[in-house]
C-alpha cells in the first residue's frame, strides 16, 4: 500500500475520546456565570440597537439609518420555507453528534465531514427563503454583481477602465456592489459566466462552496499552529456558525472562504518548512496568491494583514511569510499592469460611499450598532468564548498569548473588527461585511468547558434559525 500524502497528515490531531479535556483550564461556577453575563450584555446591546433603530425609523425622527430591522440589514418577515425542516435536522445532527465525531474521527475525515455539514447547514438556511428568493435569485438583483456581467465583453478593458466608473451619477457608473469593491469580486462572476456557468444558481453555488471552506480552514489553521486538540473542539462551532445565514449567499461568504483558506495555507507552509516538506514552497505561494487576491475582492480585507502576520508569528517560519508576501505583491503588480491601481480605487470608493446612504447614516449610532450586528452573526457561544479569551489574555494569571493560536488569533480578529468599526467605512451590514474577520474568533470556542459545549452549539443553531425565520435578510 502507498504511504498517505504527508501534507494531508501534518495537522492531524490525535484521536481523543469525546470526554477528553482539550487542554483548556477548568472553570468554576463563577466562570459559567460570567459567560452568561457576557451573553446577557450582548443581548442588551442588540436590544438597544434594535430599539434605537426602530425609534429612528419613525416618521419625522430626523435620522435616516436605511435599515428596517435594525441592527440587521433585513425586513421583518416571519416565514418558513423548503429548508426549514432540513435546517433543524442538520442543527440537531451537529449538536448531538458533532463533538463526538470531531473527537473520534481521523482528522482528514473530520474535516471532510465538517465541510459537508457546513454545506448542508448553509444551503438549508438559504432555502428557508425558497429557491429563487433565497438562493438562485439572490445575486441577480440590480445592485449585485451579476447585473453587470452581461455587459462585460472585454475583460482587459473592464479592468483598465474600472476606476473611471466607480463614482456615482454617471451614465456608466457601476452598480452598488460592483462599484463598492475592487474588480476581483466582479471578475469571479465574469469568469464563472465565461466557463458556461451562467446565472444566479451557479453564482450562488460558487459562493456556498467557497464559503463552506471556513469550516475547514479555521480549525485546520489552529491544528497546524500546534493546538491539534483545540482544533477538534472548534470544528463543530465552525460548522454551526450563525454567520452561515449570510454565507448563503452573499459574496462576503465567498470572500471569507477564500481568505480563510489563504491563512490556512500560510500555516501549512510554515509547518512544511519546520518539517522539511517539499510542499512548503507551493503552499506559501498559494497562500500569497489567495490573500493578495483577497484585497481585490474587498478593500476592507487589507485589514486581514494583521491576521496574516499573526499566523506568521505563530508559525515561526520567515520563509513561509516571505513567499506569501512575494506572491501577494505579484498579484498587486498584475492588477497594476492590467490598469487597476488599488489605492486609486480605494480613494474613489470612499468618495462613492459618501455619495450614497452613508452620507446620512449617523456614525454616532452605527459605531456601536455595527458591533451589535456582528454579534448576531457570531452568536452567543463566541461571545462567551471571547469573554474567556480576554480573561485569559489580560487577567492574572495570564497565559502565554504569543504561544497560543487560540488566544492570539482571537485577539487579532477582535482588533481587526474594532479598527474596521472605528473607521466608519461600514455603517450597517456588518453581519456580512465582517464575516472574513469574525470567523477568526471561532478558535476561542475551544476555551468553552467541555460539559456545556452541546448547549452552546444549540444556542448557535437557534440564533441562526430565529434570524432566518423572522427576517428576510438583504443582499
UniProtKB/TrEMBL annotation:
Keywords: Membrane, Transmembrane, Transmembrane helix. The chain crosses the membrane at residues 36-56, 76-98, 110-128, 201-225, 237-265, 285-314, 321-343, 363-386, 406-426. Residues 1-28 are annotated as: Disordered. This is Integral membrane protein.
Amino acid at each position: 500500500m502507498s504511504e498517505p500524502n504527508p501534507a494531508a497528515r501534518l495537522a492531524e490531531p490525535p484521536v481523543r475520546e469525546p470526554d477528553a479535556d482539550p487542554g483548556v483550564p477548568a472553570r468554576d461556577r463563577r466562570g459559567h456565570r460570567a459567560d452568561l453575563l457576557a451573553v446577557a450584555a450582548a443581548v442588551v446591546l442588540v436590544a438597544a440597537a434594535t430599539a434605537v433603530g426602530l425609534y429612528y425609523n419613525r416618521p419625522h425622527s430626523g435620522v435616516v439609518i436605511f435599515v428596517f430591522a435594525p441592527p440587521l440589514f433585513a425586513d421583518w418577515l416571519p416565514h418558513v420555507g423548503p429548508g426549514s425542516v432540513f435546517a433543524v435536522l442538520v442543527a440537531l445532527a451537529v449538536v448531538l453528534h458533532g463533538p463526538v465525531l470531531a473527537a473520534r474521527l481521523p482528522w482528514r475525515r473530520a474535516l471532510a465531514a465538517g465541510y459537508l455539514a457546513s454545506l448542508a447547514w448553509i444551503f438549508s438556511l438559504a432555502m428557508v427563503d425558497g429557491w429563487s428568493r433565497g438562493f438562485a435569485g439572490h445575486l441577480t438583483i440590480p445592485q449585485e454583481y451579476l447585473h453587470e456581467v452581461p455587459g462585460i465583453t472585454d475583460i482587459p478593458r473592464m479592468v483598465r477602465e474600472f476606476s473611471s466608473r466607480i463614482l456615482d451619477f454617471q451614465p456608466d457608473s457601476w452598480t452598488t456592489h460592483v462599484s463598492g469593491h475592487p474588480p476581483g469580486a466582479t471578475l469571479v462572476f465574469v469568469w464563472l459566466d465565461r466557463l458556461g456557468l451562467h446565472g444566479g444558481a451557479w453564482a450562488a453555488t460558487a459562493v456556498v462552496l467557497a464559503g463552506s471552506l471556513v469550516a475547514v480552514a479555521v480549525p485546520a489553521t489552529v491544528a497546524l499552529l500546534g493546538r491539534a486538540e483545540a482544533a477538534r473542539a472548534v470544528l463543530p462551532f465552525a460548522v454551526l456558525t450563525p454567520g452561515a445565514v449570510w454565507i448563503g449567499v452573499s459574496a462576503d461568504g465567498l470572500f471569507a472562504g477564500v481568505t480563510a483558506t489563504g491563512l490556512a495555507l500560510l500555516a501549512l507552509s510554515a509547518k512544511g518548512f519546520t518539517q522539511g516538506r517539499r510542499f512548503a514552497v507551493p503552499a506559501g505561494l498559494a497562500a500569497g496568491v489567495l490573500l493578495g487576491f483577497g484585497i481585490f475582492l474587498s478593500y476592507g480585507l487589507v485589514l486581514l494583514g494583521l491576521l496574516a502576520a499573526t499566523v506568521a508569528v505563530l508559525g515561526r517560519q520567515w520563509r513561509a511569510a516571505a513567499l506569501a508576501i512575494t506572491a501577494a505583491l505579484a498579484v498587486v503588480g498584475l492588477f497594476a499592469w492590467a490598469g487597476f491601481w488599488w489605492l486609486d480605487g480605494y480613494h474613489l470608493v470612499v468618495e462613492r460611499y459618501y455619495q450614497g446612504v452613508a452620507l446620512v447614516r449617523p456614525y454616532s449610532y452605527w459605531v456601536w450598532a455595527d458591533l451589535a450586528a456582528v454579534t448576531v452573526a457570531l452568536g452567543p457561544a463566541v461571545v462567551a468564548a471571547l469573554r474567556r479569551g480576554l480573561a485569559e489574555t489580560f487577567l492574572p494569571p495570564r497565559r502565554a498569548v504569543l504561544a497560543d493560536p487560540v488566544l492570539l488569533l482571537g485577539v487579532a480578529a477582535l482588533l481587526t473588527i474594532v479598527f474596521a468599526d472605528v473607521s466608519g467605512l461600514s455603517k450597517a451590514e456588518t453581519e456580512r461585511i465582517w464575516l472574513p474577520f469574525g470567523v477568526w474568533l471561532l478558535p476561542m470556542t475551544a476555551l468553552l468547558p467541555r460539559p456545556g459545549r452541546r448547549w452552546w452549539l444549540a444556542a448557535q443553531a437557534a440564533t441562526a434559525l430565529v434570524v432566518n425565520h423572522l427576517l428576510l435578510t438583504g443582499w
